[in-house]
Amino acid sequence: MADTNAPDRGRDIVIDVDLSKRTSELADKNLALLKAHGVRGIDVLGSVGSGKTTLIKQLVRRLKDRYAIAVIAGDITTRIDADRIEAEGVPVLQIQTGGACHLDGEIVRRALGRLDLDAIDLLIIENVGNLICPAAFPIGTQTRLLLLSVTEGPYMAVKHPVMVRQADVAVINKVDLADAMEVDVTQLADDVRSVHPQIKVVSIAARSGEGIDGVIAALEL
Ligand SMILES: Nc1nc2c(ncn2[C@@H]2O[C@H](COP(=O)(O)OP(=O)(O)OP(=O)(O)O)[C@@H](O)[C@H]2O)c(=O)[nH]1
Ligand SMILES: [Mg+2]
User: Fold this and answer.
1) What is the pLDDT of residues 127-161, one digit of tens each?
2) Ligand 1: does its nearest atom lie under 6 Å from the Cβ of 51?
3) d(CA 208, CA 177)
4) How far is the CA of 82 from the centre of ligand 2 (A)?
5) 124: which of 4, 39, 111, 162 is 20 to 30 A away, CA to CA?
6) Is the CB of 183 under 6 A from ligand 1?
7) Which residues make Cβ contacts (< 8 Å) with residue 9, sequence separation at least 6?
8) Which residues are registered as beta bridge partners of 124?
9) Which domains are present in the chain?
C-alpha cells in the first residue's frame, strides 16, 4: 500500500534542513565565542513570573564587585526587566522577541556581537518565560539554570522532565509561599533529582534574598 505520510515533493513544502542540528551548531558556535573571550554564560529559564528577573538582580547585587557582568534580557515585549536589572548598575541588552516564545542561537549570536565580550567575565541571559520551547533551543551558555517557583504548584518537575534534564542547576523559588501554596519543597526537590540525578538543587526566596548564596555556590561563582 502507498505510504500516505510520504510528502508529495511536487506539491508539498518539505523542510529538509535538520533544524535540531542547525540549533546545536549555532549553540556550539556561541559557546566557542564565549570561551574564546573568557566569558561564563548562564541561561536563566523558568515560567512566566517564576522570579527570573528578581533572582538575576540578587545575583548581580552580590557578584558585581567580583565579576564584570552583563545581562541579556529576553522578553516578548517591553523593556521592563532590562530597566529593573540596569538599576543594579550593570549593562543590559534587551532582546524583544516580538512573539517568539524562546531565545535561540541566532538571536543570541546577534546580541553577542553587540557586547564588548573582552570587557565581560559573566553573562547572565534571562530567557523568555516559558518551560516548554526553550528546552529545545540551547543558546550556547556553559550553564542552564532552571527556576521553579512553588506558586506554579507541586508538579512542575514531573510535568516538565525535558526542561529539568536540560538544566545544570535547579532553583526552587518563593519558598516563603510554600505553606500557602501547599507545596512540599523537599518533595519538589526530590522530584527534580528523580528526573535528573546529577542536577544541583537549591531552595530560595529571591525577593528577600534568602538562599541566594547557595545559588552562587551551586553555580561555582
Ligand atoms: N513572595 C515572593 N514573591 C517573589 C519571589 N521572587 C519573586 N517574586 C515576585 O514574583 C513576581 C514576578 O517576579 P519576576 O522576577 O518579575 O519574574 P520573572 O520570571 O522575571 O517574570 P517574567 O520575566 O515576566 O517571566 C514579582 O512580583 C516578584 O516580586 C519570592 O521569593 N517570594
Ligand atoms: Mg523577567
Assistant:
1) 999 898 888 899 999 999 999 999 999 999 999 99
2) yes
3) 12
4) 8
5) 162
6) no
7) none
8) 42, 71
9) 19-218 (3.40.50.300)
Backbone angles phi, psi at 51, to 5 degrees: 115, 20
Atom of ligand 1 nearest to the CA of 55: 15
Q: Is the CB of 53 under 6 A from ligand 1?
A: yes
Which residues touch 143 (CB under 8 Å, ≥6 apart)?
40, 41, 42, 43, 168, 169, 219
**Is the CB of 41 within 6 Å of ligand 1?**
no
Max CA distance (Å), the chain: 69
Mean pLDDT (whole number) for 101-111:
92
Atom of ligand 1 nearest to the CA of 46: 19
Q: What DSSP string runs through 40-101?
A: EEEEEEE-TTSSHHHHHHHHHHHHTTTS-EEEEEEESS-SHHHHHHHTTTS-EEEEE-TT-S
pTM score: 0.92
